[in-house]
Amino acid sequence: MENNVNTEHILWRSPDQQTEVWMQQVSGKKPEEKKEQSRAGYCLLAEMVKTRYGYDFWKETDPVVRTETGKPYLRLHPELFFNISHSGDWIACALGDAPVGLDIQYHREIKVEQTARKICNPEEWKLFQQADTERGKKDVLFQIWTKKESYLKFTGEGIRRELCEISYEECSFYQLTMPDEYSGMICVGK
Q: How far apart, in Å, are the Cα atoms of 104 and each of 11, 57, 60, 125?
């Protein structure tokens, strides 16, 4: 696993070098800024596609479409897979040639134990309980949360069932190196 930081992006590449994640810091605290994060995510995707594959999808009509369950894909390039996530002041985009799901989360204030009881399966609950500080519990919870959300984005099903019931199949997970107070996980198909 390779992680690099430069002034614009945090770059992550899968061990097989086929999937990448780029991140960019943007304003996102105010409601009007949050609306712009979605567009910024697609701009990051366009930059990745142009850099990696040499084409400008902005020249296409409706370059991004959605499946029946809402998972976005590139209309003219269904052989490529991408996913976008944004939280706090960061946007992230994953792009590769295998199905992918990505989730980043800012560690906002939540009821940590109450949330953990709702989303953790018994094995995850044990892991959560092993953390010996409140911050440690929060870090573990957000790692579990981003794993679950990245998997649901990988499958394209979204949150249609209880998070504590999710089992993982046909994928690998990689924890992203993130700024303080953020967690990130990528789920890549095998």
A: 14, 25, 29, 21
